[in-house]
Amino acid sequence: MRPTALITALFIAAVASASCAARVEQPRTIALEDIRARPEPRAEFVDDYESALASIAAVVERDLELPKLQGMLHLVSDRDGLYDVLEANGADPATARGAADKMLAIGAHRAVYVNLTAFARLNWNARIAVLSHEVAHAAQYELSGGRRSTSDQWLREGYADWVQAHVLDSMGVLTRDGILTRNSRFISRPGSREALPPLSELVGFSEWVAVSNGPASDLLYPYAYVATDFLIRRHSPAAAINYFRLFADSDDRLANFHQAFGEEWSVFDAALRNHVAQLRP
Question: I need a surface site. Which of 99, 121, 180, 266 has the fewest CB within 10 A?
Fold first, then answer.
């Protein structure tokens, strides 16, 4: 996940007031199955990776019925470490570099990778936000049988932010309604609506990375969140989970969308454009 406007505005610790901001932890690996920390009900009680992940897992497994969190948390030193991860997982060098330059962390099959240099600037509210997003990505892999699959990148990212919003709400950081309002206003500002790329340009990972390094960069995650929230309200959270699950057996993205949500992708796309046109700043 890249440092979105939400993360930047609300969670990054001020360097002048946070003595820990300059302290970067040493790379290490944590087996998620070995975490014995007690889940905390509120973010204010979280101050390490074990309690953060235990708390996030408790929320997403209980409330959202996502798969059990498994695998490893890899705390890598910097963006070069994320670049190596992306390239090892099949991204071409240009895409891997573009993503590593933007992302704070990566969620993969039974693995979450954290850029420790980037995380050193974040307080624990922000770390919980980013980790929640990546845990959702890990769940997407689990649902699709460990495959990256051809599921739409805008929906992968939007759903990860939707899960993040649920965790932040549950742990007393922000409300889901407040996050939706903020993102809706952000993409409906003068000039922003016209700059939104069509969903058809946000289907693949390489396309997403290319747009994220362009003029519409700051709009991508808010737009994906609004689109996903609109889709889930239009159908159900269970339909979104089923969408990712269908990719375990088929890479036909349009057929999977229709089977999961009961409408053609093009019909939803038109409904979303109408919904966004009616938003007010």
Answer: 266
Burial of 1 (0-12, 13-18, 19+ CB in 10 A): buried
**Rounded Cα–Cα distance for residues 135 and 58 (Å):** 12
Please give the Cα distance from 229 to 223 (Å, whole number): 10
* CATH code, 5-277: 1.10.390
Instruction: Give CA torsion, residues 121, 228, 247, 95, to 10 deg.
Output: -40
Q: Which residues of 242-255 are buried (b: 16+ CB within 10 A; e: fewer)?
A: bbbbbbeeeeebee
Angle at 115 (CA atoms; ends 210, 40), nearest 5 degrees: 115
Where are the domains positioned within the chain? 5-277
Q: What is the mean pLDDT of residues 93-99?
A: 85
Q: Which residues pair with 182 in a beta bridge?
A: none
Q: What's the rounded Cα separation, in Å, for the pair 147 and 166?
A: 25
Tens of pLDDT, residue by residue over 114-155, are: 999 999 999 999 999 999 999 999 999 999 999 989 999 999
Is residue 281 helix, strand or coil?
coil
Q: Mind listing the pLDDT tens digit for each residue in 220-253?
A: 999 999 999 999 999 999 999 999 999 999 999 9
Beta bridge partners of 12: 122
Helical H runs in the chain?
A: 5-10, 49-63, 79-88, 93-102, 116-119, 124-143, 153-170, 176-187, 192-195, 205-212, 220-234, 237-246, 253-261, 265-277
Q: For the purposes of burial, counting CB atoms within 10 Å of the CB of 174, is it exposed (0-12), middle (13-18) or buried (19 or more)?
A: buried
